[in-house]
Design goal:
This protein has about 200 residues and is an alpha/beta fold. It has 8 helices and 10 strands. Strand 5 and strand 6 form a beta hairpin. The longest helix has 19 residues.
């Protein structure tokens, strides 16, 4: 039986113009995405969820895939991969928080991920584990700033106050600050297909 919260969120997101699919496990979600994309170019945003799903490994067998979080090919730089991802047919990312009222929130340091979600692709796929859900916009923003961002800063071994304990945002001025850009999707943007993948498991931070 589907998670009631996920089903409720699906209804809200569909009213905002998104296609929404629900899966019980990350394996089912990975199988579904793998079957949808073939002989195409695919860009990935930095994402622990994507890593846990093994999406890069699945899609690289029959697509051109670009992910700066994966070992960089010889002769290329992370910037080269990020640029290639920016012009890919498909862009796949997870999110930092989703409100049950429909707002989708991401925070980024380099801001390539938040910019790519908005424009320039044939289709954008956003992956949401059940741990990313929050009751409303303020709660989703709080989650993105005080749960997801500190844990990501710690994972990346950044020298920020939040990385010490991964406990909260200190609104720091560190050169390694990870909270440089905030993206909020209120509804589906024009000119691009969007699909939200809701997974009834905890994924990423």
């Amino acid at each position: 039986m589907k998670n009631t919260n996920l089903k409720d969120l699906q209804n809200v997101l569909e009213k905002h113009g998104y296609k929404v699919s629900i899966f019980e496990t990350k394996e089912q979600a990975t199988d579904y995405i793998d079957a949808q994309i073939n002989h195409s170019s695919v860009g990935f945003g930095g994402s622990v969820s994507i890593k846990e799903m093994g999406l890069y490994e699945r899609l690289e067998h029959h697509n051109d895939v670009y992910w700066h979080n994966h070992p960089i090919p010889e002769g290329k730089t992370a910037s080269d991969i990020i640029q290639a991802a920016s012009t890919a047919d498909y862009y796949i990312s997870s999110v930092n928080g989703v409100a049950m009222t429909g707002e989708i929130i991401n925070i980024d340091g380099r801001c390539n991920r938040v910019s790519e979600i908005f424009y320039g692709h044939k289709k954008v796929i956003l992956i949401v584990g059940k741990n990313k859900l929050a009751p409303d916009y303020d709660s989703a923003l709080f989650r993105a700033r005080n749960i997801a961002a500190p844990k990501n800063a710690q994972r990346l071994k950044l020298k920020t106050p939040c990385a010490v304990k991964a406990d909260k945002c200190y609104n720091c001025s560190s050169p390694d600050r990870i909270c440089n850009g905030l993206a909020v999707l209120w509804s589906r943007p024009y000119g691009c297909e969007y699909e939200i993948i809701l997974v009834d498991e905890n994924l990423g931070y």
